[in-house]
Amino acid sequence: MTPIRIIIIDDHPIVRQGIASLLSNYREFVLVGEADNGVDGRELAQTAQPDVILLDIRMPGESGLETLNAILRQQPAARVLMLTSFDDEEYVMTALRSGAYGYVLKSVSDDQLVSAIRAVHRGEKVLSSQVTEQVIRRALTEPAPPARPAAAPGSLPALDDEEIAILRLLVQGASNTEIGETLYMSQTTVKRKLRQIFETLHVQTRAQAAAEAVRQGLV
Question: Does the structure show a pLDDT above 90 at 73?
């Protein structure tokens, strides 16, 4: 198996050392570089061409959000996982809207961080549970999308027990892989179910689906 190439952009040496030590325990990961500021970090991202970028949000000089935008301008397909101590709602929403694949707090367990890196490498969106609560709260306070014309009875599939279970896990911040492992579903089935849920709830994203489930009292 080709190792997942990772870089760390964080101004705290102890944090970088801790992550590096964690990654060294897994043969599937290889740390290909570190940077302690955003300017060096974006240059490293371009030269090292990593599979996953772990990026702090508050650093001296250029902020993590500025670095994120700079990286994505250079490498639109880059998979960036924000790894930070700050769960400020505006940070979270700005990072996700800018194109980050995930937003995880440094307080997560080692296993959760490893799972998040794997998920981002697969192209999945990842949020830690605390951040999911922020996103849902924000979505609940935003105006609901315009109502669609009423559908004929029976034209939309009702949510079945499995779909409700998926929604519960979405609210908890679970990735597709975690949903599949919990509910004993293949990834193909999880993706198909998610498409059906989005269609039924008239939403386009996981966060919107989770918020709508809470809004309607489905979970």
Answer: yes
Q: Three-class SS of residue 118?
A: helix
d(CA 154, CA 114): 43
CATH number at residue 30: 3.40.50.2300
Residue 133, classified by CB atoms within 10 Å of its CB into exposed (0-12), middle (13-18) or buried (19+), is: middle
Do 108 and 178 lie in one domain? The reply is no
68 and 90 inside one domain: yes
In this structure, the answer to whether residues 120 and 49 fall within a common structural domain is: yes
**Tokens, residue 148:** 């669609």
In the block, tokens 């508050």 appear at 58
Cα–Cα distance for residue pair 191/188, rounded to 1 Å: 5
pTM above 0.85, yes or no: no
The total of other beta-carbon atoms located within 10 Å of residue 63's CB is: 15
